[in-house]
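Please fill in the sequence for the structure shown.

STRUCTURE ENCODING:
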């Protein structure tokens, strides 16, 4: 009996060991699959991570009331009462060539424009509805014109498409629908499958009728309306069939936190999309890998044109936001909301022009750059590209800046805008044993001098080794 019990115990131990080996093998296989997918993602998003700076364009019939792109929902306007705004949307000054020139002048490398926002009105010549710009202006396809204009300037092109549609009869009265408090609308019957058929078909039009699309920006999921509620796997499979190199954002998922890179492996997005805020640090996956991300930011406080929103960010704030993003391995997608006739507000033009002046002289510290493996200094930020380390001096200081323990690492130190040598010192009143490496725009380093650029003076440190 004892021998039988011993054999049973031994068999149980063997079975447990086999189970553990199988489990471990499964984990290893999953990790190898993960690594393969992560490598594919890294290759697909390489240009995106090198570009760092893009233009977001929110444009549509909501520019007529001029109270922002959410006006229909915020003011609970019915489709019938919203129609006069749609009918009046016939912009005579829509010239995307001017937008593209402004984007390039500002130092942007790509753009994303609204093909359809939540109100359901389409800026492209869809065959699936008459609720489109070509109904108002026969022969005009604003998406086509935008794509051609931005490609002509050498910029990558993206399209925004709303998963939500307040105009479609089969889109239910849920979430922020304008009729959410209307009891009569609550009685309506909806065919969700028909809506999905429409939505998928429109995205197919965008993927098949306009040439190569570099980015598809889907927006947005909420509550239970996420993932397979949108038939996401089927949708993304179709998108990649027609646009194999396209980059997808992560908003097929409602809770799009810093783990959505794992969802990408099931087809739900390539990069994170923080909105109207800057993350405190680089975004990483469950394994600690840095993942692509992009903060979308408005120039004032509204995405679509709002005639009363005059809270404009300064060029300095935008430059700081861009550098902040790059220092954490992210991108900045900066929004403009053109007026109803198609012109970008003068305040936006002025801000972007000033940003462009800074980029003309300092873009080397932005393009192809990422984080440096250094703590954030109190005086600004670091960005890095290979052997080149860029110290972004954004906060005025008394005297010098100090990059400790770098004296033996550096080959050359210059002010980026001029190429002139910067002043460096390891001593401060004879104290040379603290590992200090003081830098200033002039000598002696411990004195205070006007900075060449009040927005952000960039010091370039050419290192001996990467």
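FILLED IN BY: designer on duty
SEQUENCE:
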């Amino acid at each position: 009996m004892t021998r039988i019990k011993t054999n049973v115990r031994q068999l149980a131990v063997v079975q447990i060991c086999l189970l553990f080996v199988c489990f471990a093998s499964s984990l290893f296989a999953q990790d190898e699959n993960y690594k393969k997918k992560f490598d594919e993602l890294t290759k697909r998003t390489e240009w995106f991570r090198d570009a760092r700076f893009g233009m977001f364009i929110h444009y549509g019939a909501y520019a007529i009331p001029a109270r922002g792109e959410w006006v229909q929902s915020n003011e609970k306007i019915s489709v019938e009462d919203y129609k006069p705004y749609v009918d009046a949307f016939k912009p005579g000054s829509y010239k995307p060539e001017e937008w593209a020139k402004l984007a390039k002048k500002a130092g942007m490398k790509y753009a994303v424009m609204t093909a359809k926002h939540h109100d359901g009105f389409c800026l492209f010549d869809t065959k699936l509805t008459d609720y489109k710009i070509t109904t108002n202006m026969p022969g005009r396809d604003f998406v086509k014109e935008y794509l051609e204009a931005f490609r002509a300037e050498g910029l990558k092109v993206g399209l925004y498409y709303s998963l939500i549609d307040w105009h479609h009869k089969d889109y239910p009265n849920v979430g922020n629908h304008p009729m959410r408090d209307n009891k009569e609308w609550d009685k309506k019957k909806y065919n969700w499958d028909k809506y999905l058929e429409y939505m998928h078909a429109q995205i197919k039009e965008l993927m098949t009728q306009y040439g190569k699309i570099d980015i598809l920006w889907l927006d947005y999921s909420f509550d239970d309306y996420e993932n397979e509620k949108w038939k996401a796997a089927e949708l993304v499979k179709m998108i990649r069939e027609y646009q194999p190199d396209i980059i997808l954002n992560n908003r097929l998922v409602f809770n799009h936190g810093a783990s959505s890179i794992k969802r990408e492996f099931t087809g739900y997005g390539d990069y994170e999309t923080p909105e109207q805020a800057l993350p405190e640090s680089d975004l990483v996956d469950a394994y600690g890998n840095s993942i692509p991300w992009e903060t979308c930011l408005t120039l004032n406080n509204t995405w679509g044109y709002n005639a009363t929103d005059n809270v404009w960010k300064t060029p300095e704030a935008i430059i700081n936001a861009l550098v902040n993003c790059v220092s954490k391995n992210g991108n900045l997608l900066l929004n403009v909301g053109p007026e109803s006739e198609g012109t970008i507000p003068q305040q936006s033009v002025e801000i972007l022009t000033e940003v462009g002046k800074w980029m003309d002289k300092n873009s080397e510290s932005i393009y192809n750059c990422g984080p440096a493996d250094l703590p954030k200094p109190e005086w600004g930020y670091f960005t890095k590209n290979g052997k080149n380390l860029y110290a972004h001096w954004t906060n005025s200081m008394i005297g010098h800046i100090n990059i400790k323990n770098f004296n033996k690492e550096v080959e050359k130190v210059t002010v980026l805008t001029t190429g002139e040598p910067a002043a460096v010192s390891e001593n401060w009143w004879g104290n040379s044993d603290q590992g200090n490496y003081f830098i200033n725009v002039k000598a002696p380093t411990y004195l205070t001098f006007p900075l060449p650029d009040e927005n952000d003076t960039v010091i370039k440190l050419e290192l001996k080794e990467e």
